[in-house]
Specification:
Chain lengths: ~110, ~110
Amino acid sequence: AQSVTQLGSHVSVSEGALVLLRCNYSSSVPPYLFWYVQYPNQGLQLLLKYTTGATLVKGINGFEAEFKKSETSFHLTKPSAHMSDAAEYFCAVSDAGSARQLTFGSGTQLTVLP
Amino acid sequence: DTGVSQDPRHKITKRGQNVTFRCDPISEHNRLYWYRQTLGQGPEFLTYFQNEAQLEKSRLLSDRFSAERPKGSFSTLEIQRTEQGDSAMYLCASTLIDSNYGYTFGSGTRLTVV
């Protein structure tokens, strides 16, 4: 069984500061890893994903994440927060099996302070 | 490509009533997933289809829930005899198998059972 742990249900940063959202996973098979963003009353938008290859993945809106197998982590970062980054962020894992459904973490609410 | 469409966006129903939601995936996508998201939690997998075949159902999908995808196009999710615990956001996602995991989510249907 797979699981995802997002450390910190709420994170606050000042505008222009570094954003770091933590995600640890457990999987018995090589994982595929995702970060999604959700704005209020909306669906999920894919920020970035890791499947194979380079472990540092760049996504939309200046976000990036690094897959660290030894630490079973896939933390999301952005060098400089913008007010428009305020949203809920979900980390998700999928395996390479036939179903490939996503298992999500419980989410991190990001607040950006002026 | 107009994305994944879900209808209705909001549904308020009385306990004990039946409700049906519709999802129209991206036309060339052959896999369709249903997820449920309760307040403050990440989405949880309910079921998925490959073309018209329902290939897996989560234990979360009680006997009161049924999903169909006739002709492998749009899908419906019906909840019979709704309970207050069914109140949640129901999300639909679609993807093309072996497409490097390009899951696209709809905006969801928010169900409130009163």
